Amino acid sequence: MSVAFGASRLVLALVLGVAAAAKLADREGTRQAAGGLGVPQAFAGPLAVVLPLVELALAAALVPAASARPAAAATAALLAGFVLVVGVALARGRRPGCNCFGRLHSAPIGPWTLARNVALATLAGLVAWRAAPLGRIEATATVGAVALVAQAWLWLELLRRYGRALQRVAELEGERDEPAGPETGGAAPPFVLPDLEGTLVPLESLLGPDGLVLLFTDPRCGACDLALEEAGELPAGLVAITTGPRDEATAKAEQHGLPVMLLDERLEVGPLYGVRGFPTAVRMDANGAIGETVIGHAAVASLLHGDASPRRVAGGVR
User: How far apart, in Å, are the Cα atoms of 142 and each of 52, 123, 130?
Assistant: First the structure.
């Protein structure tokens, strides 16, 4: 019988410890759950801190034999309070979230919630009636369980902070303005880029009487190879701009028979033209005025063969 009561104390201590650690890791959820169960908002915030601290204290007090009985009695009273609050909420037809175990397990209250608390309160009452000291095995298990609970709480706290950091990074990324590029009819941004031989080539020297098409590509983009193949079939008026590196760009130029290919290894020119994906083609007239910008192999092929009407196509293949 003493072993059974010792194990019961261990179960109660584990349940209280895990519940307390989980609530502390999700104090906002605990506050909302308290408000949903009818606790005034003025008290819901402090309760979200006090309640898990009380549960931790009771869990610790259940381990030593000297404090087991009063701790078990207090636990029974606490659980009886839970039973009363949950019962009243259910009787009134309300089923707010319990948040009994924080993010580990949070679901609307129901008959199972009521039955679980009744069972635990009964177990705590039995321990208070006849508490027995823990043996060596139970004591070792309790210490290990406490360590596991502490470790779990640390991991939950780290994950919570990591989640906040990721959210903040996403917010900062969202605040960054996407490169819009020049509007149709606007002047093409000037640039100077090296060709495959290292010679610096300005935009002005590329403009011809029939205008110019800039084809922005990336060597890791499969759709770009298809676009370059289309470009290699054109007699003139197209210049490919790649992110490099030089050796891969040279191989691509030779493979597709491209007379001119420029290197934008630092990604300085692409953003000026609003490049958000590859391949992107930008057509301009002889004066350097933007005619149209398209993204994606199909749209680029249409533009190169004169089938595309002036437009800016969002999306693309990266």
Answer: 19, 17, 19
**Residue 142 and residue 147: Cα distance in Å, rounded?**
9
Task: Return the pLDDT at 165.
Answer: 73
Q: How many helices (H) and strands (E) does the chain have?
A: 9, 7
- How far apart are alpha carbons 34 and 103 in whole angstroms? 15
Is-contact 269 182, C-beta < 8 A?
no
Distance CA 32, CA 46 (A): 12
Pair of tokens at residue 125: 């009452």
> Do residues 68 and 9 touch, judged by C-beta distance below 8 A?
yes
Instruction: State the pTM of this model.
Output: 0.44
Report helix, strand or coil for 185: coil
Q: For 149-158, what is each residue's pLDDT tens digit?
A: 556 556 655 6
241-259 per-position pLDDT tens digit: 999 889 889 988 888 888 8
